[in-house]
Design goal:
- This protein has a single domain, classed as monomeric porin ompg (Porin, Beta Barrel).
- The chain contains three helices and 13 strands; from the N terminus they run H-E-E-E-E-E-E-E-E-E-E-H-E-E-H-E.
- It has a twelve-stranded antiparallel β-barrel.
């Protein structure tokens, strides 16, 4: 937790030049970018719940200040040499149905919710320092999540191959933890005792790979790793300390 607080403090100091930068005003040239599809293999932390297969859009699109990045939509408020400041909104795909596993029978479904907040990038030398603050805006979990990470992009083989590794910390609020992993007294069973967690810290790492097949088409692969905090892993619904996800996609530039 101390390292996370130090990172946030450093980020706030570095964020000041971004706030002083010129507001982002890109000439409106219509939508342009990359459109395609992705397939995701998402490992679930819950007991006896199979890896989920997700079909998702592969979109990296811009029009003026507005953009779409995967399943995230946003509005770029500020951009400068030091970084950028965006307002964003995205669905949160976590959750379960009560019939997904025996351990969840008798629980209320936890459907996906929608988060909104800010996304900030501070460029410092070779690295990008990333900070996002998200809140549930449809009042299902009433949760909050703060993610801080460091990334760097490598462009290889005459710009045909782009690698972006990223490592970070993800703080999740008590409300968010209990919405997805808590068990109240009405849902308790012999094999599922009452459980209430507190806010927790997860550790994350990812690698994004983009390979250009031609001037207008590319392949996308991503591997994401997340080590779950104790207040998630201690839940009677959970039997995994780490979860891994894979994304495979194809996009066409227009």
């Amino acid at each position: 937790m101390r390292a996370f607080c130090q990172f946030i403090s450093m980020f706030i100091l570095g964020f000041i030049p971004i706030l002083l930068a010129t507001p982002y005003q890109k000439v409106d040239e219509g939508w342009h970018g990359i459109a395609g599809a992705r397939m995701g293999l998402r490992e679930e932390p819950y007991k006896n719940v199979n890896t989920k297969i997700l079909l998702l859009p592969y979109l990296v699109m811009r029009r003026g200040n507005f953009f779409v990045d995967g399943i995230k939509i946003g509005y770029r408020v500020v951009e400068g040499a030091s970084g950028s400041f965006d307002l964003i909104m995205a669905p949160r795909l976590d959750g379960f149905n009560a019939d997904d596993s025996y351990i969840l029978n008798g629980m209320e479904d936890r459907p996906f919710t929608v988060d909104a907040g800010i996304d900030v990038v501070w460029k410092r030398g070779l690295f990008d320092f990333n900070l996002s603050v998200l809140n549930d805006v449809v009042h299902k979990s009433e949760g909050r999540e703060v993610t801080a990470s460091i990334s760097h992009t490598y462009i290889l083989t005459v710009k045909k191959l782009i690698l972006t590794p990223d490592i970070g910390l993800k703080w999740q609020s008590e409300n968010l933890v209990n919405y997805y992993y808590g068990v109240d007294s009405t849902q308790a069973r012999a094999n599922r005792p009452t459980y209430s967690g507190e806010s927790t810290m997860n550790y994350t790492a990812s690698l994004d790979v983009i390979y250009s097949l031609s001037k207008r088409s590319n392949l996308f692969i991503a591997v994401e790793y997340e080590s779950l905090g104790d207040d998630i892993y201690d839940s009677p619904l959970v039997d995994k300390e780490q979860i891994i996800s894979f994304l495979f996609g194809y996009g066409w530039q227009f």
